[in-house]
Structures are given as structure tokens and as C-alpha cells.
Amino acid sequence: xxxxxxxxxxxxxxxxxxxxxxxxxxxxxxxxxxxxxxxxxxxxxxxxxxxxxxxxxxxxxxxxxxxxxxxxxxxxxxxxxxxxxxxxxxxxxxxxxxxxxxxxxxxxxxxxxxxxxxxxxxxxxxxxxxxxxxxxxxxxxxxxxxxxxxxxxxxxxxxxxxxxxxxxxxxxxxxxxxxxxxxxxxxxxxxxxxxxxxxxxxxxxxxxxxxxxxxxxxxxxxxxxxxxxxxxxxxxxxxxxxxxxxxxxxxxxxxxxxxxxxxxxxxxxxxx
Length: 272
Fold this sequence. Notes:
Distance between the termini: 6 Å
CATH class: Alpha Beta
Helix content: 10-25%
CATH superfamily: Endonuclease/exonuclease/phosphatase
Number of helices: 5
Shape: globular
Strand order of the largest sheet: 3-4-2-1-12-11
């Protein structure tokens, strides 16, 4: 099974062109695809619904989208399906059914260093080797303290997910069987894919990101320390797994030929 994470920078390539075809081609071989910085109805990306566009270009994948910014569009008009929204966020696509999904917002830190709202998108994917929890996120780029808060929130979410159960777990005063079938089991195995905006060579990695119960797959395959997923920032896009998945990691590599974004896709191969 191949996984890929790619901060697509709303499809804006290094040549200054917005081109979703390049993004879809770069990730088409992924069984599980995690994308960040996906636009919906923004002028900078031509008012295109990039979620729909990417789904159409990858027709063999199921998908979910988690907006972290959701605003009224001044260019939209009311209609039978509602006014278009300007949205920005994270997307997960998978070749197998996505049994459940949640989109959760992350802490924003002190106002003095605050930037846009960030979030983490969770998907339970029914892979042939068993269900997996897949998370994708894009952490704050500006403040180490805020990144640490956000990453801690993700780790707490991962640690507590099995006990918390699904989004509809628990009693409900008017439970009338509106959920068809049994809720899917919450698997212990989890993967975090995304742009953490911190490199393992940065001092904050050791203080805020290492030793949090997640394993950096790049270290499992003896990856080169100088590898870069963003040419001028180092390896800031990551795949982290829970320890029960570490033995399944077979390879990891960076697609240095991709040109559709200011980031490069990070690929991981699992033995399942």
C-alpha cells in the first residue's frame, strides 16, 4: 500500500501557473492521498471548486474534505443547492471506502502570533489489511509555541480516539436507528500525514514533536537527513505512524520531479 502527502499550495506551481492536472498526476499512484491547502471558490485559483476537480481527476478514489476556513463568497448567488462558500482546508482520498470521518479545529495560540485557523481531518479507511485511522493536517508556519499546541492536540486525539469511539458513539435521547448498521470499530493503528512546518533538524522537533508516541517513517528507512520536501525549508512534510505500524513500513521517498506546488510529495510504502 502506498501513501502520499502533498501540500498542493492550491495548485500553484513553481512556474506561477495553477494546474490541478499536475497535482492529480503526481498523486495518482497513491492508495491513500493526503492533501493540504485545497481551495474552493477563491479568486486566486479561478473560483474553481478544487475538491470537486481533484475528485473528478482521481475517479478511483473515495474522498473527504475538511475546511478550516469557511467564508461567504461575494461572487456567489443563492440557488437550489445554496450559495457557494469560499473554503480552504485538507483532503483525504483513498482507493477503499472511508468508513467515517471527522474534521476538528486546532488551537490557534496567542493573538500576537496567530495566523489562519488550522485543523486536522480524520478518516477511517477500510484497507485490505484492516482499517486504519488516517489524519492529515497543516500546522501553523509562524510560531513554534502554536505548532507545539496543535501537535499536542493531534496526539491527544489519536491517543483518545479508541476510548472516545465514533462521532455518534454514546446514548442519544431520540435514538431511532438513524445510523444504519453497526458503527465501525475505531482501529488502534493511525497515520499522520501532512505539513507540520518543522524539520527534524530544527531545535523544536526534539522538544515538541519527538517522543510523542509516533514514529517518523523517514527514520525507519534510514532516510537522508538533508532530504527536503520544500526546497528552501527542509523536510517539513511528514508521515508519522503509531508503533504498531512501524514494522509495516517498507520505504519512503520524495518526488523531486513534481512541479505543481512549492512543496514536494512525500511517499511511503506499507506492507499491507
